[in-house]
Write a structure and sequence with these properties.
Blueprint: E1 2-4, H1 7-19, E2 24-29, H2 35-47, E3 50-55, H3 65-70, H4 75-84, E4 89-91, H5 95-98, H6 117-120, H7 124-139, E5 143-147, H8 151-163, E6 169-173, H9 193-198, H10 201-212, H11 218-230, E7 235-243, E8 260-267, E9 270-277
Parallel strand pairs: 1-4, 2-3, 2-5, 3-4, 5-6
Antiparallel strand pairs: 7-8, 8-9
Helix pairs in contact: 7-8, 10-11
Bound molecules: adenosine monophosphate (AMP).
Length: 279
């Protein structure tokens, strides 16, 4: 595996492959890799001849300084995992390579950022789109892979890349979970053992919602789910929303189509998100 740290070298590297008709898959990550990331890489390996993984802890998508500072960084381990996964190139740029000039770009996301993570993490999606579009400009992938774990992010990236005229496929990949159902996340290592135990309640609540959503009022199920989550000691529920998976607008019992349940909850100092199609 080749490790590339500058934008110009990365572009030169993929250009020679692209000129020869090679299809390039990109898996953008913030490192602290786990099986969830590796499942995206596996998929990219199956669908492309050349796979690039980027590790870039994007400062502009963190709306809280403490969150950026305590974000886990395990570069040596990540490198080993990527080598074992037969990744062709690791793109590991500095902040200056991604943002050569300190200019914040502002994107109109056509309302997809109006709910859930949007209002709760001001500036977050703007920062995500600024970094992702820069990575796409540098790597020019045929396909880019993102997890359904970050459901709203995936919807916004699909929409914005289309809106901005990128010629690539955005591939959404299913959420990988721990044995007790907790969605794998780089942040899980920050949970204390007692918090880690409690964290499985998120999956339980979403699964229960899914089980009953065909037969009961989804609005009353939502209230029950909120009650359960609010009772978890040491937790603070930020939101639990039932939304239309395409528009991300909140739904009610009159909904005919699919429903996605999305949740963000704090356990101690760690913010966890998850989602599930419940209908
Ligand atoms: P991150 O490093 O957390 O920014 O994640 C990089 C990519 O991996 C994003 O597209 C995430 O949605 C995806 N991802 C994170 N956790 C999981 C998971 N448990 N299962 C599948 N994909 C994931």
């Amino acid at each position: 595996m080749i490790i590339i740290t500058t934008a110009i070298e990365m572009t030169n590297y993929v250009n020679s492959a692209l000129r020869n008709g090679v299809e390039v898959g990109l898996v953008p990550t913030m490192g602290a890799l786990h099986q969830g990331h590796l499942s995206l890489i596996d998929r990219a390996k199956k669908e492309n001849q050349l796979v690039v993984v980027s590790i870039f802890v994007n400062p502009v998508q963190f709306n809280r300084k403490e969150d950026l500072e305590k974000y886990p960084r395990t570069f040596e381990l990540d490198k080993t995992l990527l080598e074992q996964a037969s990744v062709d190139a690791l793109f590991y740029p500095s902040v200056n390579e991604i943002y050569p000039i300190d200019k914040k770009l502002v994107y109109d996301m056509d309302g997809l950022d109006a709910s859930m993570e949007g209002p709760n993490r001001p500036g977050h999606f703007n920062g995500v789109i600024q970094a992702v579009t820069r990575l796409l400009d540098i790597v020019q992938p045929t396909r880019a892979y993102f997890g359904e774990k970050d459901f709203q992010q995936l919807a916004i990236i699909k929409h914005m890349t289309q809106k901005l005229g990128y010629n690539l496929e955005i591939i959404g990949c299913p959420t990988l979970r721990e044995a007790d159902g907790l969605a794998m996340s780089s942040r899980n290592v920050l949970l204390r053992p007692d918090e880690r135990k409690k964290a499985s309640v998120i999956f339980q609540v979403l699964s229960q919602l899914k089980k009953e959503a065909q037969t009961k009022s989804i609005m009353s199920l939502k209230e029950e789910a909120i009650d359960v989550l609010k009772k978890v000691k040491g937790s603070k529920l930020e939101y639990l929303e039932l939304v239309n998976p395409d528009t991300l607008e909140p739904v009610d019992d009159s909904i005919d189509g699919s429903v996605q349940a999305c949740v963000a909850i704090w356990l101690g100092g760690v913010r966890l998100i998850d989602n599930m199609q419940v209908k």
